[in-house]
Amino acid sequence: MASIGIKDVSKIYNGGVTAVSSVSIDIADGEFIVLVGPSGCGKSTLLRMVAGLEAISEGSVTIGDRVVNEVDPADRDIAMVFQNYALYPHMSVYENLAYGLKNRRTPKAEIDARVAEAARMLELQPYLERKPRALSGGQRQRVAMGRAIVRKPSAFLFDEPLSNLDAKLRVSMRGEIKRLQRRVGTTSIYVTHDQLEAMTLADRLVVLSGGKIEQIGRPLDVYHRPATTFVASFIGSPAMNLVTGELHGSKLALGPALIDLGATVPTQGAVTVGLRAEDLHIHDGTKGDLPFRIDYVEELGSQRLVHGVVGDQPLVAAIPSEIPLPETASLSIATAKLHFFDSKSGQRIDWVGEGAIAASIPAMEVAAS
Amino acid sequence: MYRTRLLDHVILLIGVFIMVAPVVVAFMTSTHEAADIHRNGLSLTWGGYFTETYNTVLTRKGGFTGEITGARMIWNSLILGIGFAAGKIILSMLAAYAIVYFRFKLGTLFFWMIFTTLLLPLEVRILPSYEVMNKLSLTNTYTGLIVPLLASATGTFYFRQFFKSVPEELLEAARIDGAGPFKFFIDILVPLSRTMIAAIFIIMFVYGWNQYLWPTLMTTDERFFTLVRGIKQILLVWVGSNIPDYNEAFALAILAMLPPVMIVMIFQRWFIKGLTESDK
């Protein structure tokens, strides 16, 4: 068990391509960190640099109080779970679990004890003599995790471990990983491109884009206060609506509508406005603030996603399925739930009105549409 | 589903007949006496001299020095065949391992250099090879018989392709599990290549077993004669007024066939298993 320090780490390939640029993350002992981002954002490269499978071009990685830049992967005291499991196909489950320990000259009795313990935790006892090919995907993934657990390393590294599983299994394995990590309390770094996995698993999220950190924070903080438009559109499903608006004093012009914010935002003029689909309320006729033309509806069962346009900007609203859809609709949103981003840099703009939880939808002026 | 019809069986039977009939004729003829064969030619019936002929072939000391027996020749052939196949596999696996897993300068160039030698048959370099062996006074030794033939472009190429198909993550998992280059090779790659090894072993054993020109050149001492050479030796008697021992030649030919057939039968099961098992 150990903390992990990633300090100004960069990966620059021979051709001059920068995959990861100057990333710093401090990971506390026992923390579950999820690196999330679209494919090609450098999250796997970063993980592999921590594992020692890629050379670190710049910066330093510390595990515990040891700088491990030049340390062999085997000596970094880490264990890794791969996307395609990477089980040794010719070895039985038992041998797969024991291989790492055997290479470290662990006494036979202790190997047996540790394998038995891991097998019990992961409910693998009936399969110990089987070869990996005789196991299902979920069982293989459990073996891969068992291989990490038996070593009792200071850190677990997960490289998209669930992406080869079907949707149902993914949900149950997600729970299992979380439970297991709580139980053994090992510091973990988990890479995924699935924002839902990231939200549910992480103690803290690291959102990466183009090799740079967009935001680090607890899942709910990231969800409620995305630092950039990238994070806003990446975290949460459906993605946050990003529309362009214009600020005039304490008023926001959004398409044909004018909304009184009740406070000024520290910027004026063109701005990117973020609206969560689930914060939008739908009204019959023109009772709401934003005139909304419905395009089509996606029924999800518990809720429905209504796609439409405000002015000429597309918008999605998530509404409970009980509410009947009006012919002509309009939307309203609590001003406190509005997010503002710089229209050029995409950086979040904090303002005083946000976070002030509105008890009811405050009165808003309805602009002539 | 396709239903097997009578015609299919007929076609298969014709195939079996074409393949097996010559062998049966050779075997049947080998049980006759030499004079009988000389008079009546090949025969399809049982001659009744099976034990005598095969006993003679295996145990009678013959040749110019009177020291070489059929059993001895089989032994020599086995040494050549197995040494040849095993040596080629070990050498080409190691070469392929180096080419695939170690990024050294000009690695690709070396690979293609090895690969282009595929185009040259053994016979092209047989005289220089002989010259070298002669200078090292390795003629009439098993070493001289086997070693010069070991470098194998075919084997290296097959193993290279196979190693390239082994998932990269397996290497990474092994590295994290604390397996060094040597351990990874022995513990992971060799067991994974079992079926590939079986396939190459079949090909190379038969190739080595059937070598004729190189053993002829390398061995003048009869103690090192291989079976394939022995058969030829028997027919050489023709020069005199003797009737050549046709029966013995046929018996030797049958004997020469047995080990490769057995090897193919033993390894074939692995071979097919390897082809049908999907994941590595």
Automatic annotation (TrEMBL), chain A:
<keyword id="KW-0997">Cell inner membrane</keyword>
<keyword id="KW-0547">Nucleotide-binding</keyword>
<dbReference type="Pfam" id="PF00005">
    <property type="entry name" value="ABC_tran"/>
</dbReference>
<dbReference type="InterPro" id="IPR012340">
    <property type="entry name" value="NA-bd_OB-fold"/>
</dbReference>
<comment type="similarity">
    <text>Belongs to the ABC transporter superfamily.</text>
</comment>
<dbReference type="InterPro" id="IPR003593">
    <property type="entry name" value="AAA+_ATPase"/>
</dbReference>
<keyword id="KW-0762">Sugar transport</keyword>
<keyword id="KW-1003">Cell membrane</keyword>
<keyword id="KW-0067">ATP-binding</keyword>
<dbReference type="InterPro" id="IPR027417">
    <property type="entry name" value="P-loop_NTPase"/>
</dbReference>
<feature type="domain" description="ABC transporter">
    <location>
        <begin position="4"/>
        <end position="235"/>
    </location>
</feature>
<keyword id="KW-0813">Transport</keyword>
<dbReference type="InterPro" id="IPR017871">
    <property type="entry name" value="ABC_transporter-like_CS"/>
</dbReference>
<dbReference type="InterPro" id="IPR003439">
    <property type="entry name" value="ABC_transporter-like_ATP-bd"/>
</dbReference>
<protein>
    <submittedName>
        <fullName>Sn-glycerol-3-phosphate import ATP-binding protein UgpC</fullName>
    </submittedName>
</protein>
<dbReference type="InterPro" id="IPR015855">
    <property type="entry name" value="ABC_transpr_MalK-like"/>
</dbReference>
<dbReference type="InterPro" id="IPR008995">
    <property type="entry name" value="Mo/tungstate-bd_C_term_dom"/>
</dbReference>
<dbReference type="InterPro" id="IPR047641">
    <property type="entry name" value="ABC_transpr_MalK/UgpC-like"/>
</dbReference>
<keyword id="KW-1278">Translocase</keyword>
<dbReference type="GO" id="GO:0005524">
    <property type="term" value="F:ATP binding"/>
</dbReference>
<keyword id="KW-0472">Membrane</keyword>
From TrEMBL, chain B:
<keyword id="KW-0472">Membrane</keyword>
<feature type="transmembrane region" description="Helical">
    <location>
        <begin position="249"/>
        <end position="272"/>
    </location>
</feature>
<protein>
    <recommendedName>
        <fullName>sn-glycerol-3-phosphate transport system permease protein UgpE</fullName>
    </recommendedName>
</protein>
<feature type="transmembrane region" description="Helical">
    <location>
        <begin position="142"/>
        <end position="163"/>
    </location>
</feature>
<feature type="domain" description="ABC transmembrane type-1">
    <location>
        <begin position="74"/>
        <end position="267"/>
    </location>
</feature>
<feature type="transmembrane region" description="Helical">
    <location>
        <begin position="184"/>
        <end position="209"/>
    </location>
</feature>
<feature type="transmembrane region" description="Helical">
    <location>
        <begin position="78"/>
        <end position="102"/>
    </location>
</feature>
<dbReference type="InterPro" id="IPR000515">
    <property type="entry name" value="MetI-like"/>
</dbReference>
<comment type="subunit">
    <text>The complex is composed of two ATP-binding proteins (UgpC), two transmembrane proteins (UgpA and UgpE) and a solute-binding protein (UgpB).</text>
</comment>
<feature type="transmembrane region" description="Helical">
    <location>
        <begin position="109"/>
        <end position="130"/>
    </location>
</feature>
<comment type="similarity">
    <text>Belongs to the binding-protein-dependent transport system permease family.</text>
</comment>
<keyword id="KW-1133">Transmembrane helix</keyword>
<keyword id="KW-0813">Transport</keyword>
<comment type="function">
    <text>Part of the ABC transporter complex UgpBAEC involved in sn-glycerol-3-phosphate (G3P) import. Probably responsible for the translocation of the substrate across the membrane.</text>
</comment>
<feature type="transmembrane region" description="Helical">
    <location>
        <begin position="7"/>
        <end position="28"/>
    </location>
</feature>
<dbReference type="Pfam" id="PF00528">
    <property type="entry name" value="BPD_transp_1"/>
</dbReference>
<keyword id="KW-0812">Transmembrane</keyword>
<dbReference type="InterPro" id="IPR035906">
    <property type="entry name" value="MetI-like_sf"/>
</dbReference>
<keyword id="KW-0997">Cell inner membrane</keyword>
<keyword id="KW-1003">Cell membrane</keyword>
